[in-house]
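Page 37, continued from 36.
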């Protein structure tokens, strides 16, 4: 919100044009300060403040201090928060089209994901988000996710049988783990460490940087490279904050988000390596699975069920799969 303050100090006060107080934007972030996404969000905030000459002053709140991801999505939608970095996993509950991005093995690799999200198909996702009050300004990387657990290396789908995994808040992931013979529990990210430690769950799944930054590697040391999910993330602004901007400021904010995404992707590539080395040095056991395709082959029912429930999204799936 913009307020106008009358300068009252000094004898010329009445003659001086009243400076506008900046729009204070509050930004949600789940990760700690040194995470690639966090650094990129700070770049976004700094560039917006500088280029708008202080008309907008974004502040980033790290470590999910403003709440869980599903709550934060709601808050950005209703304008209670102004911007955020969101993963498209929890987004699926609100913007059904984004569930396509949560289908296991939907992308061949991260390069294909970038190609899709940076092109016309990415725009379709932005349009779907816009209908729900979220203006997606750029796409961040989130690598690929693999399973890790406290018990044993996973080599084949049979090794998943009977194990209890935490998943993000989305029914598709529950079905995904079911198909592998495991049990899935949706749970807030911040509760996973303790739940692994106390044996409430046997495992979870994530990329290397989050496996590292969450310290899950300390308690679940078997990380098995299944690469089953490649989920993009957005830098999203609330429609309320966006609509209040002048055209000039919209350009500035958009350009800052694109700069932030470029930085995030470069930092991400580096951090993936650093995190992998760090967790291995700390005793995590990372293994290749014996046949990655064996995991993918189990996902037929996830796709069938999804297409049956969302026939209008089948062509979007096909368009992604045929992007090369
Ligand atoms: C991380 C994502 C974050 C998710 C988290 C999770 O960047 O948005 O909340 O995984 O597993 O990789 O909940």
């Amino acid at each position: 919100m913009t307020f106008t303050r009358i300068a009252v100090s000094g004898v010329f006060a009445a003659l001086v044009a009243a400076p506008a107080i900046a729009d204070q934007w509050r930004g949600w972030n789940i990760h700690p300060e040194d995470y690639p996404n966090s650094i990129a969000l700070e770049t976004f905030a700094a560039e917006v403040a500088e280029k708008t000459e202080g008309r907008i002053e974004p502040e980033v709140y790290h470590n999910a201090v403003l709440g869980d991801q599903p709550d934060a999505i709601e808050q950005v939608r209703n304008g209670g928060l102004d911007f955020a970095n969101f993963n498209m996993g929890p987004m699926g509950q609100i913007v059904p089209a984004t569930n396509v991005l949560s289908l296991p093995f939907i992308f061949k690799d991260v390069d294909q994901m970038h190609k899709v999200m940076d092109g016309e198909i990415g725009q379709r996702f932005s349009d779907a988000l816009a209908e729900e009050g979220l203006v997606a300004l750029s796409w961040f990387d989130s690598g690929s996710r693999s399973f890790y657990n406290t018990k044993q290396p996973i080599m084949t789908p049979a090794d998943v049988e009977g194990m209890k995994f935490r998943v993000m808040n989305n029914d598709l992931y529950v079905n995904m783990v079911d198909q592998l013979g495991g049990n899935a529990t949706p749970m807030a990210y911040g509760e996973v460490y303790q739940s692994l430690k106390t044996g409430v769950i046997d495992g979870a799944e994530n990329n290397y940087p989050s496996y590292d930054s969450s310290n899950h590697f300390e308690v679940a040391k078997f990380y098995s490279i299944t690469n089953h999910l490649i989920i993009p993330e957005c830098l999203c602004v609330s429609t309320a904050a966006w609509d209040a901007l002048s055209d000039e400021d919209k350009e500035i904010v958009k350009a800052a988000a694109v700069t932030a995404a470029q930085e995030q992707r470069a930092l991400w590539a580096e951090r993936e390596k650093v995190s992998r080395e760090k967790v291995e040095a700390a005793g995590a056991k990372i293994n290749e699975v014996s046949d990655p395709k064996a995991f993918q082959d189990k996902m037929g029912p996830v796709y069938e069920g999804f297409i049956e429930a969302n026939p209008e999204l089948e062509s979007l799936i096909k368009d992604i799969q045929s992007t090369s």
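DSSP finds 14 helices and eleven strands in the chain. Flag for discussion at group meeting. The longest strand covers residues 222-229.
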